[in-house]
Design goal:
By secondary structure, the protein is mainly α. The protein is 74% helix and 0% strand.
Length: 178
């Protein structure tokens, strides 16, 4: 239940961020080229929205196994070794997410303490900077889920197996049963 709610929230937030970024950019282009005007704050808002989109999108990519990777070595080694290498990759990802989370949290705390505002938006700078610790916390959670699935034998790694997925999809189509 909580997993589904978090997944829905993640996907909805990504869609809203992308839509907002697109609308702000489109509005800025129309204002600039049609009305010879524009908003000073639009670029900064787009940058903040993009940062949130990328950092939340990283955890989403882990969840749906959409990150690209080179799996040539994994296909040449026995499955137990491949699972071990995948677990090593997960552990390194967890360390990375934890380090960036800590640095992001310290930055947010400092910005909150000194109360700097964004350059062009009347927003305290620490609010858009929250994207870093929140995004890394989500990434840590998703990597931990993958690691747990690998340890329990329910997954063989971080990457999707496109060939296996494509063959399963072909087997599941009505035309293939004739």
């Amino acid at each position: 239940m909580i997993q589904r709610a978090l997944a829905w929230l993640e996907e909805t937030l990504l869609a809203l961020l992308l839509a907002a970024m697109t609308l702000v950019t489109f509005g800025q282009v129309v204002a600039r080229y049609v009305f010879n005007s524009g908003a000073v704050w639009a670029l900064e808002l787009t940058i903040f929205l993009f940062a949130w989109l990328v950092l939340i999108g990283a955890s989403y990519g882990v969840r749906v196994r959409a990150h690209i990777g080179v799996d040539l070595v994994l296909s040449l080694v026995p499955s137990a070794v491949a699972r071990g290498l995948a677990m090593l990759a997960v552990l390194l990802g967890l360390v990375y997410a934890a380090i960036i989370f800590k640095g992001g949290w310290d930055t947010v705390a400092l910005l909150h303490l000194i109360q700097i505002e964004a350059e062009d938006l009347p927003v305290p700078r620490w609010i858009p900077t929250l994207a870093l610790p929140i995004g890394m916390a989500l990434l840590f959670l998703r990597l931990a889920e993958v690691g747990w699935a690998i340890l329990r034998g329910r997954s063989d790694g971080l990457l999707a197996n496109e060939v296996k997925d494509a063959l399963a999809q072909v087997r599941d189509t009505p035309e293939s049963s004739q």
